Amino acid sequence: MWFRNARFYRFTKPVELTAETLENALAQAAFKPCGPQDTFRLGWTAPLGRHGQQYVHSAGGYHMVCLRKEEKLLPAAVIKEVVAERVEQIEHEQARKVRRKEKDEIREQVTLEMLPQAFSRSRLIFAYLAPQEDLLVVDAGSAKQAEELTSFLRKTLGSLPVRPPAVEQAPAFTFSGWMTETLDMPPSFSLGLECELKDSGEDGGVVRCRGLDLRSDEIRNHLETGMQVTRIAMTWDDSLSFVLDEELALRRLRFGDTFQERLDDVEADDAAARFDATFSLMTLEFARLIPALLEALGGEDRSALIEA
Fold first, then answer.
1. Which structural domain range is residue 58 located in?
2. Which of 14, 35, 55, 134 could staple 308 via S-S, CB 3.0–4.6 A?
3. Residues 53 and 153 in one domain
4. Minimum mean pLDDT range among 17-21, 168-172, 220-224
């Protein structure tokens, strides 16, 4: 069980979160399937799935949680077609024009009628809390998904004082400096073969490069015209590769052979034990990566944090 993406949040003040406290709170907001008139439902489920019953999986002081979202699938084209048919029928039978407000009411009615027959799909969002490091790490490919989890966790706990980490200098400035070699990249990091550049002007042009040497003349020419790097592929410590963006989100995480070898050395007889081993190794890896990454980006701005 390792994350494919990682968005991390800093607790703005020290918190005391034990496994027992989390378990009790999450149990009160456990997932329940959608009712006939629900468009979606959110709730907590066991991170181990059918291999576990606890809503919190803890190891080494880290607490894994899992949010499940079930949503009904109602194709917009189908609703639009039914609404058009009803509007046409009203206009024909009553010899009058159906206005926008009435069309909206018809659309709402059609949606309510179709919801009980709609198919549904579920999605899981994993995250873990690291109270000793004042961090929350979410496996989410988009800011919207991560906000879904943090918002529901805040609602569940009553309070969740977190925010994305801030760094002393703009990430785009640092990325661009690494590629032009005007800034030194720490030796534990190396550039990959992918980046995204944006024009800071009104047009906001975007150039995406893949499979290229990021210090090539072709890319350097774009940087000399004033474009800035907003996304960059990197490898850390020869054990973890990812694409980092200016929001400090890590995408397409890939754990290297060293990590896999360490996992293979673990004696895990069943799925639950292997999950636990993977989780422990992954959290330890992130515990090393995140401080190193923040330092590489110019250092963390902790001015808004309340220290213990």
1. 7-73+120-163
2. 14
3. yes
4. 220-224
Axis-axis angle for helices 171-180, 217-224 (nearest 10)? 130
pTM for the model = 0.86
The answer to whether the CB of 171 falls within 8 A of the CB of 249 is no
Within 13 Å of residue 170, how many CA atoms lie on the same side as its CB? Answer: 8
3-state SS class at 129: strand
DSSP string covering 83-127, please?
HHHHHHHHHHHH-SPPPHHHHHHHHHHHHHHHGGG-EEEEEEEEE
> Do 148 and 42 meet the contact criterion of CB atoms below 8 Å apart?
yes
Q: List pLDDT tens digits, range 95-128.
A: 889 899 999 999 989 888 888 888 889 999 999 9
Q: Give residue 51's pLDDT.
A: 83
Quick one: 24 and 156 in the same domain?
yes
CA angle 6, 12, 13 (to 5 degrees): 125
- In the three-class reduction of DSSP (H, G, I as helix; E, B as strand; rest coil), residue 12 is classed as coil
The single-letter code of the amino acid at 267 is E
More confident residue, 305 or 26: 26
pLDDT of 268 reads: 66
Residue-wise DSSP of 246-264: TT--EEEEEE-HHHHHHHH
What the block records as the tokens of 120 is 């549904």
Other C-beta atoms closer than 10 Å to the C-beta of 252 total: 13
Instruction: State whether 93 and 131 are in the same domain.
Output: no
Task: Write phi, then psi, for 290 (nearest 5 degrees).
Answer: -60, -50
- What's the mean pLDDT in 190-202? 88
For residue 136, being part of any structural domain is answered with yes
